[in-house]
Amino acid sequence: MRILVTGGHGQLGRDVTTSARARGHEVVALDRRALDITDSDAVHTTVVDAAPDAIVNAAAFTAVDACEAEPERAEAVNAGGVAHLRTAADDVGAHLVTVSTDYVFDGTLDRPYREDDEPNPASVYGRTKLGGERAAGADATVVRTSWVCGEHGNNMVKLVLRLAAGGGDLAFVDDQRGNPSFTADLGPALVTLTETAPGGIVHLTNAGAVSWFEFVREILGASGHDPARVRPIATAELDPPRPAPRPANSVLANDRWVALGHSPLREHREPLRELIAKLQS
Q1: Contact, 46 vs 89, CB < 8 A?
Q2: What is the per-residue pLDDT for 40?
Q3: What residue ranges of the chain have pLDDT lower than 70?
Q4: CATH at residue 136
Q5: How far apart are CA 184 and CA 16, in angstroms?
Q6: What is the pLDDT of residue 208?
Q7: DSSP-assigned states of every residue in 23-54
Q8: Are 206 and 146 contacting, i.e. CB atoms less than 8 angstroms apart?
Q9: Which has the closest alpha carbon to 85: 112, 109, 50, 120?
Q10: Tell me: the pLDDT tens digits for 140-157?
Q11: Which of 28, 43, 76, 223 could be bridged to 38 by S-S, CB 3.0 to 4.6 A?
Q12: Number of structural domains found in the chain
């Protein structure tokens, strides 16, 4: 296949590109400087020139709190950009795969969220990503994931390692739960969905739900630091408070991925150890 990857130099886009090329696909990986997905003319020209069989959209405005301050930009990237890609994909007959988020849910359920649960985003980020899902259309494959970590770009694992190196105690919330998802597993799985083009919504995360506090303890332990350095706090204790509301429960059930015949992604502690080994080498 010939695959065009937007956000191709980002945390997830790089691992999608690496995995696709390893499987023998031809990949055109573009960063924001090469393709601004908010520019409809640029999107159309680039897609027509590349003539891909599939488009993987890993481009997004993911700074959750910044989205609250810049809602127009969030809308233009997370919803408008997907709409431009949908139109261009239709023009060349390409299948669109776009990455979405657990933030489309309000986090009030007492069980993992399934693909058919009704979204109810509480933040600008969540609302604009839901807008992107709808703009993608029924034929596209929409992949919701959460708590993404990888070798490239900024993420919680890298943040905690920097904080741990600085000494002192840490405090992280224990009343927000989700699934850490590692690009080393998520990238290849996205390529699989690009190859099979099932369409519709697919939840895709590594296994094992934790709170942020528990995840930080795991990061500290796996990196040779004392897990006791972190203490749990409630979201209400954050000082200053975060501008964007976070879902208390963002655990995603990967039911459709399994129903499509695929094995669940690994328990997250295994790719966590692998990532830390890379970052510390």
Answers
A1: no
A2: 98
A3: none
A4: 3.40.50.720
A5: 9
A6: 97
A7: TT-EEEEE-TTT--TT-HHHHHHHHHHH--SE
A8: no
A9: 50
A10: 999 999 999 999 999 999
A11: 76
A12: 1
